[in-house]
UniProtKB/TrEMBL annotation:
InterPro entries: Bact_Sigma-Reg, PAS, PAS-like_dom_sf, PPM-type-like_dom_sf, PPM-type_phosphatase-like_dom. The keyword Transport does not apply. One of its GO terms (molecular function) is phosphatase activity. Residues 130-164 form a coiled coil. Pfam families: PAS_9, SpoIIE. This is PAS domain S-box protein. It comes from the Bacteria. Residues 12-65 form the PAS domain.
Length: 320
């Protein structure tokens, strides 16, 4: 080797020594028998062993038994490769510090020299923090998946409950619909038959807003040629109004049998309503009107009245 070559080699070794000593990753060089021949300061910082305790010894104590066998197998495989340049890092690997704490690391290996006289250069990077973050992300991802599964299960249970409630409500609705249809039939049946009067044509139609309603009409002959028409409308729609008008129909039928046409018809209807709804706590508004057609004398009498019924201290007051 010439003087220039020696100088060049010395400069190269000097630069390598600077990089070797200043590297933040632990670097350990091993001989063919896997014994330490070099260890940089970062190795001591990472594992707590001074270089004097590492050089000349193996690094088996840095690995668990399972990892140790795998590590040596990797070194031998790399030494037999045609291209002995630095290989792709492998890890994470759990390594053991001098104080028996665990260092999560990533290792890359390169080989120099011939197969008979090779050296292994091991770069050990501390990835404990990176590994911790990755594990936390994995746990968070698992928790999200678990929550997603729980959400799906909850949604399935809710959907099943909704289906059950829907079937239950459908059954209730069907029953209510059948009862309303029956109520409609009954209310239609209480409507009067159209009387036959010579020379007069009478037509009627009953079309409540709902299945049943609060409207009522009645017409009948007091005597031949004299027709009485009664119209009533209870406040509201539906069942409540229908019940009121059906009650009114009963009162009207009672008065018709006793004294209809005596001149006290309105008073009798009012008295009947007040008596029937004496304990009712709400205000019921009822409008009614009566027409009396005398086709023999060509006269019409018209009477109307309204009944707001108030419940006050157990007594009812009718205003009309």
């Amino acid at each position: 080797m010439t003087g220039f070559q020696k100088s060049e080699q010395k400069g190269h070794d000097s630069r390598y020594s600077i990089l070797f000593d200043s590297a933040i990753d632990a670097i350990v060089s091993l001989d063919g028998n896997f014994r330490v021949i070099l260890a940089n300061p970062a190795t001591e910082n990472a594992f707590g062993y001074p270089s004097s305790e590492l050089i000349g010894n193996s690094i088996e104590h840095l690995f668990s038994l399972r990892i140790k066998k795998r590590f040596y197998r990797i070194l031998k495989n790399i030494a037999e490769l045609p291209d002995k340049k630095r290989q792709k890092p492998f890890g994470p690997i759990r390594m053991i510090r001098k104080d028996n704490t665990v260092l999560i690391s990533e290792i890359s290996v390169s080989v120099t020299g011939s197969r008979e006289d090779c050296q292994y250069h091991v770069v050990i990077r501390n990835i404990s923090e990176k590994h911790r973050i990755i594990m936390e992300l994995k746990r968070a991802n698992e928790n999200l998946r678990r929550m997603d599964r729980e959400k799906e299960e909850l949604l399935e249970k809710l959907e099943e409950k909704v289906r059950q409630r829907s079937r239950l409500l459908a059954g209730y609705y069907k029953g209510i619909k059948e009862e309303l249809n029956l109520a409609k039939k009954l209310q239609t049946e209480i409507l009067p038959d159209i009387p036959s009067i010579s020379g007069i044509q009478i037509h009627s139609a009953y079309l409540p807003m709902m299945e049943v309603g609060g409207d009522l009409y009645d017409l009948f002959q007091i005597r031949p040629g004299v027709l009485r028409v009664f119209l009533a409308d209870a406040t509201g729609h539906g069942i409540q109004a229908a019940l009121l008008t059906m009650t009114l129909k009963g009162i009207l039928e009672s008065i018709k049998k006793k004294r209809y046409g005596s001149g006290n018809d309105s008073h009798g209807i009012q008295s009947g309503i007040l008596q029937k709804f004496r304990k009712h706590r709400n205000v019921l508004l009822l409008f009614s009107c009566g027409h009396r057609y005398d086709f023999q004398k060509n006269r019409v009498r018209f009477r109307r009245s309204s009944y707001p019924i108030f419940s006050f201290q157990g007594s009812c007051i009718g205003v009309g």
